[in-house]
Amino acid sequence: MIEVLPQTQGDLLAVRVSGELTNADFDQYREKIRDRMKATGSARLYYEMADLHWVKPGAAMENALLDIVHGREYGRVAMVGNKAWHEWAAKLVSPVKKKGVRYFEVEEREEAMRWVQEGE
User: Fold this and answer.
1) Neighbours of 97 (CB within 10 A)
2) How far is CA 74 from CA 33, 44, 66, 116, 117, in A?
3) By its UniProt entry, which InterPro entries does this protein fall under (predicted)?
4) Could you give the dihedral angle defined by the CA atoms of residues 40, 43, 46 and 52, in that order, rounded to the nearest 10 degrees?
5) What is the residue range of 22's domain?
6) How many domains does the chain have?
7) What angle do CA 26, 79, 82 make, to 5 degrees?
8) Is the distance from CB of 35 to CB of 66 less than 8 angstroms?
9) What is the CATH number of the domain that holds 70?
């Protein structure tokens, strides 16, 4: 499940993901990123993984392709999580993002939000 957070505005997309992410969830997420980039020319991302259990492999691959194609259009990207694989995922996608990805633990979510809101 993907929940768009109220901090979403301008070029900032803030989401909380939980449960099991499906192709439909990633379709919704990619559409929102494309909307931000179309409207503002870039996108900053706050991506909080709360009780995230599983990501469908096909959905993850489609999302990775979006990152490869558009990753250089992203500004700051903050990923927030609480599991070792969450941090590993942030490190895995970091090289394709213009500004990389900064990982924060769940207890640091407020710091992560402030950091990503600072923009460039």
Assistant:
1) 20
2) 9, 6, 11, 11, 13
3) SpoIIAA-like, SpoIIAA-like_sf, STAS_dom_sf
4) 120
5) 2-117
6) 1
7) 105
8) no
9) 3.30.750
